[in-house]
Specification:
alpha/beta, 7-stranded mixed sheet, Rossmann fold, 12 helices, 2 domains, 5-stranded parallel sheet
């Protein structure tokens, strides 16, 4: 018993000493543990599985360049299986049981909303790599995907322009959860500000995993036949995109008739679709694989080699990169830079060091973390689907745009703080 008490006392003194140095127990070990929280099964696996591998590739890259604080990063991978409550359970497991110092993960906003109270309660960090609806700021989250003014608003402005086809009627079609509904609330208010009446807006939602789009496409064709140029704004997420685009092709709805502007469809989602009938349909992102610059060429080459070496299904023979992969790559590297700058993996010290962090992004810009609002400054690109499933960039912003997490088109957002409230 005396020995056990002595050991317990020594462990307590060690913990106190580590706390004084700003070190976590995870950091004090031979490696520093980081969490990977992406769906590897279920309806969102089509989009999220590759992000797990991107995190692992980024960790390998950080480790090859000296790691963090002289130690190797050790990934802890869990599968929340497209189950939103399970995301919260897995987040708590990562932080409290596995003792990770940061987590990279989530795709849907409902999964992010599920885990947010856990990260805030336990004062841990989440890096979230996907475009979202805004209307949120948290001390414990860094948003490396786009806010609405960095994707949705510019995309609709493009559709309304002469170059984009001068659309005047809009179909807001999405999966039934918080991101599509909130984004469409913002877009409806934006369209109203441009003189578009409710009679010229069709809004419809389908559940996760929905596969029968026959009647919906027929209704879109009918809505589009009433005189004004019509465009579809798609916030469909996950594997439902495959039957949606297939039905578009089956019913002969071409981009010249009714262009689709997708916010959640990139190179990976089009992998299982015959893209020849979809040529000319659009997507708005902050990165496309087809962008030509040396940084992107190096990123693609690194992913190609990684996918082949790790025998990743699909990508080992036909490697594809996309926007959330780029955002994930940036997030892992920025966190590593911040931890090295802070000389600690302590949450609050890393948060302070994240302000103003910069990274040469594959999109061709120097991506910067805003000093206040935990969002990246991002350029916006509009891409047209090609027959090979890639995108031709047809429009882009002159430079990076600062995120507006609180939309100026929603009256209740006025006066909200532009930085997270520190708790």
């Amino acid at each position: 018993m005396k020995t056990n008490r002595r050991q317990a006392g020594q462990m307590m003194m060690s913990a106190i000493a580590l706390a004084a140095l700003g070190l976590s127990t995870a950091q004090a070990a031979d490696t520093i543990k980081v969490g990977v929280l992406h769906s590897l099964s279920g309806t969102m696996a089509i989009s999220e599985s590759v992000l797990k591998d991107t995190v692992l590739m980024a960790i390998d890259d950080v480790n090859a360049h000296g790691g963090v604080l002289g130690k190797k990063l050790e990934p802890v991978v869990v599968d929340p299986a497209s189950n939103w409550p399970l995301f919260a359970e897995k987040a708590r497991q990562l932080i409290s049981t596995d003792h990770v110092v940061v987590t990279f993960g989530c795709w849907t906003s409902v999964s992010r909303k599920s885990v947010l109270p856990v990260f805030e309660e336990l004062n841990s960090l989440l890096f979230y790599p996907v475009q979202y609806e805004g209307e949120e700021l948290s001390k414990n989250v860094f948003y490396t995907g786009a806010a609405p003014n960095q994707q949705a608003i510019p995309a609709v402005e493009y559709l309304m322009s002469k170059d984009g086809g001068s659309a005047r009627r809009f179909v807001l079609l999405g999966t039934d959860y918080v991101y599509p509904r909130t984004t469409n609330k913002i877009l409806r208010a934006f369209l109203h500000s441009k003189g578009v009446k409710d009679a010229d807006i069709m809004e419809e939602y389908t559940p996760f995993g929905h596969s029968d789009y026959q009647s919906i496409i027929a209704n879109i064709k009918k809505f589009a036949s009433q005189g004004k140029k019509t465009a579809v704004i798609s916030t469909i997420n996950g594997d439902s995109n495959v039957p949606f685009y297939k039905e578009m092709g089956n019913q002969g709805l071409k981009a010249t008739d009714v262009p689709v502007m997708a916010f959640s469809v990139g190179e990976q989602e089009l992998r299982g679709v015959d893209t020849k009938p979809l040529v000319g349909h659009l997507a708005a992102w902050n990165y496309f694989m087809s962008i030509k610059n040396p940084t992107n060429a190096a990123f693609i080459a690194k992913w190609t080699a990684y996918a082949k070496a790790h025998n990743i299904p699909g990508d080992k023979d036909h490697p594809l990169t996309n926007d959330p992969m780029e955002a994930t790559w940036i997030g892992v590297h920025m966190w590593a830079q911040a931890a090295n700058k802070a000389k600690s993996t302590d949450t609050d010290k890393v948060i302070a060091a994240m302000a103003g962090q910069k990274f040469n992004a594959p999109s061709g810009i120097v991506s910067m973390m805003d000093m206040k609002n935990h969002h990246l400054h991002k350029s916006v690109f509009i891409g047209e689907v090609r027959a090979d499933g890639q995108f031709n960039v047809v429009w882009k912003t002159p430079g990076p745009i600062k995120a507006q997490p609180w939309s100026p088109y929603i009256p209740e957002d006025k006066g909200k703080p532009d930085e997270p409230v520190k708790k």
